[in-house]
């Protein structure tokens, strides 16, 4: 899977250069619109390698400017939602996500806000495509590698100094932010949020349970709608303490992290494999009760491009509790200076009444992990 994703990323990069030679505007529209989708599947790292190679061999890169508006469009959408919503929880996670987006870190915005609200994600891609086309029209180039977000503008300044291509890029990103904000504000509706919550919980058979578990309480005695077992063995880490703001901010949802002492991820319940990253470092499951669970192995391990990971199932498979899903090599992960902490997150916890986590310092695989209350 790792080799396939590398090949696909190279193909996308070569295709983008070919389209740019025919029409910079069309290349900007396509790359701008699809960039955030590439981020979700980890394909953007292959394009980053092409950008670096372009700068080192030709002295400039034309791909990076075309995707530059994407983070601003995403951020604008989230700012619009923040200004519109009366939902305290949504407001509390949308502002930090928007601030991160200003600096080019869009994962909290994507996974925590727009992707769960699919229409918002689609609108952000459309806005990014429009203003990616404008940047393509300007012929903006990148002269040295830097970040996205507001710190990226300086990378467009060549020996000639500030020219029209730089100013048009600034204008395009400002417009992407403003248009995204307007779209987010107009399209978002708290009524839709409430209707979704009612729809997802109308068959609930439980009462509200909000008190945390203590060491003397056994999780299985709690009235629950769904139940999650530990998918691996290891030491418990609070999700808020992991070294990744995408997870520690709880933008992805409530959950737990485990420092692994075993190297196989097993199914924590009977489920359908909803998503499986090509790199094998993350898997999304959905239980028969509707619980959506993300198991993410390591921090920034998408950069390993599949090295050290072996998927044992395919997307769309039906799995049973205890079935092996992914094998991973902690030694390979750590030798490459990555953190091998495994995050286990209920990605639709925004529609739950509570996610009640077992209070233990160490879990063995198939131990009680947490209960989901709908």
Automatic annotation (TrEMBL):
GO terms for cellular component: plasma membrane. InterPro entries: Dup_hybrid_motif, PTS_EIIA_1_perm, PTS_EIIC, PTS_EIIC_1, PTS_Sugar-Specific_Components. Keywords: Cell membrane, Kinase, Membrane, Phosphotransferase system, Sugar transport, Transferase, Transmembrane, Transmembrane helix, Transport. It is found in: Cell membrane. It is a multi-pass membrane protein. This is PTS system beta-glucoside-specific IIB component/PTS system beta-glucoside-specific IIC component/PTS system beta-glucoside-specific IIA component. Residues 1-199 form the PTS EIIC type-1 domain. One of its GO terms (biological process) is trehalose transport. It comes from Staphylococcus gallinarum. Residues 244-348 form the PTS EIIA type-1 domain. NCBIfam families: PTBA. The gene is bglF_5. One of its GO terms (molecular function) is protein-N(PI)-phosphohistidine-sugar phosphotransferase activity. Pfam families: PTS_EIIA_1, PTS_EIIC. It comes from the Bacteria. The chain crosses the membrane at residues 12-31, 38-56, 62-83, 95-114, 166-187. Its EC number is 2.7.1.-. Its main location: membrane. Signal peptide: none annotated.
């Amino acid at each position: 899977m790792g080799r396939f994703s590398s090949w696909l990323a190279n193909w996308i990069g070569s295709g983008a250069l070919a389209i740019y030679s025919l029409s910079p505007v069309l290349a900007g529209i396509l790359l701008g619109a699809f960039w955030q989708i590439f981020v979700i599947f980890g394909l953007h790292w292959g394009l980053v390698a092409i950008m670096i190679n372009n700068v080192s061999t030709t002295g400039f890169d034309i791909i990076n400017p075309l995707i530059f508006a994407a983070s601003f469009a995403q951020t604008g959408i989230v700012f619009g939602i923040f200004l519109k919503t009366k939902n305290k929880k949504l407001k509390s996670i949308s502002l930090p996500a928007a601030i991160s987006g200003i600096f080019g870190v869009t994962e909290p915005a994507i996974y925590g806000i727009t992707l769960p609200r699919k229409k918002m994600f689609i609108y952000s891609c459309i806005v990014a495509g429009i203003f990616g086309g404008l940047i393509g029209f300007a012929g903006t180039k990148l002269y040295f590698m830097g970040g996205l977000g507001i710190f990226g503008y300086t990378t467009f300044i060549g020996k000639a100094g500030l020219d029209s291509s730089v100013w048009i890029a600034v204008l395009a990103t400002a417009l992407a932010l403003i248009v995204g904000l307007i779209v987010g504000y107009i399209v978002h509706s708290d009524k839709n949020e409430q209707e979704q919550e009612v729809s997802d919980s109308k068959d609930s058979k439980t009462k509200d349970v909000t008190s945390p578990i203590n060491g003397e309480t056994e999780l299985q005695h709690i009235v629950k709608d769904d139940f999650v077992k530990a998918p691996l063995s290891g030491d418990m880490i609070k999700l808020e303490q992991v070294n990744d703001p995408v997870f520690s901010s709880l933008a992805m949802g409530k959950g737990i992290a485990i420092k692994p002492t075993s190297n196989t991820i097993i199914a924590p319940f009977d489920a359908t494999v909803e998503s499986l990253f090509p790199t094998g470092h993350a898997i999304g499951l959905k239980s028969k009760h509707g619980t959506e669970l993300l198991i993410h192995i390591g921090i920034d391990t998408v950069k390993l491009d599949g090295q050290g990971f072996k998927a044992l199932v395919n997307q769309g498979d039906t799995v049973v509790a205890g079935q092996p899903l992914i094998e991973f090599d902690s030694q390979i992960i750590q030798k490459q200076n990555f953190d091998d902490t495994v995050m286990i997150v209920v990605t639709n916890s925004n529609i739950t009444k509570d996610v009640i986590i077992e209070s233990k310092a160490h879990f063995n695989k198939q131990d009680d992990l947490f209960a989901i209350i709908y």
